[in-house]
Design a protein that fits this description.
This is Integral membrane protein. The chain is of the alpha+beta class and about 220 residues long. Helix content is about 40%, strand content about 20%. Helix 2 runs antiparallel to helix 3 (about 35-60) and helix 2 crosses helix 5 (about 195-215).
């Protein structure tokens, strides 16, 4: 297990977030092992809800869009080519008209080729809540052509567009506009799927509680 997967499984957010999942599975397990019909029905309903929620988290987390770097992790900067920008609904991801770009609940999605120093370039979609003004170098027609990306060196799919990148990084991004766009493959996520840590820990919690209850009874 690499460090990223270990942090995802045993990090404080996962440990706390798995408690409701563990409670639902505990109720289901106790109901199945003689705890009463009401406990079985309650556990089944709670477990079904938890699994639906985890499925939604996994679907959202394993899409093509990037995620933000983890708090406290080192972050590197790199210039990036901007292939396009579109406006989407924050919840559904549905593409919206340009006139809706500043409406509440919308995001800008940047299609980027990030060109880090010393490693292969990669293609990624980055969601950003702000307008494109000031975030990217612009071409003659005003469209963004380059941007400054911030990414986690160990997990490059965790890429964002920083609101205030260092001036030196802005200069690098502007200089990139004259360079040809390199061939790049879409970045792939590694480690546990989104939400998997909550399910694994929930099963461990439930197993421990059920074992203690049966041992005490």
């Amino acid at each position: 297990m690499n460090r990223a997967a270990f942090r995802a499984l045993f990090g404080p957010h996962a440990l706390w977030g798995a408690l409701p999942v563990g409670a639902a599975l505990t109720a289901l397990g106790l109901g199945l092992t003689g705890g009463g019909r009401w406990l079985l029905l309650l556990g089944a309903a709670a477990t079904a809800g938890a699994l639906l929620l985890l499925a939604a988290v996994a679907e959202a987390g394993n899409g093509v869009a990037s995620a933000a770097p983890r708090p406290g992790r080192p972050t590197s900067y790199a210039p990036a080519h901007v292939h396009g920008v579109r406006v989407v609904h924050a919840g559904s991801g549905r593409t919206l008209r340009d006139s809706d770009g500043r409406a509440q609940g919308t995001l800008f999605v940047f299609d980027l080729t990030v060109v880090p120093a010393g490693r292969a370039p990669y293609r990624v979609l980055v969601r950003h809540p702000l307008d494109v003004q000031g975030l990217a170098g612009q071409g003659k027609d005003g469209t963004p052509v380059t941007a400054v990306a911030a990414y986690d060196p160990e997990e490059p799919w965790r890429t964002v567009l920083p609101a205030s990148p260092p001036p030196r990084e802005r200069q690098r991004a502007r200089a990139l506009a004259a360079a040809p766009v390199p061939t790049a493959s879409p970045v792939t996520r590694v480690g546990l799927p989104a939400g998997a840590s909550l399910l694994v820990l929930g099963v461990l919690y439930a197993g421990a509680v059920i074992a203690l209850v049966r041992a005490a009874g």
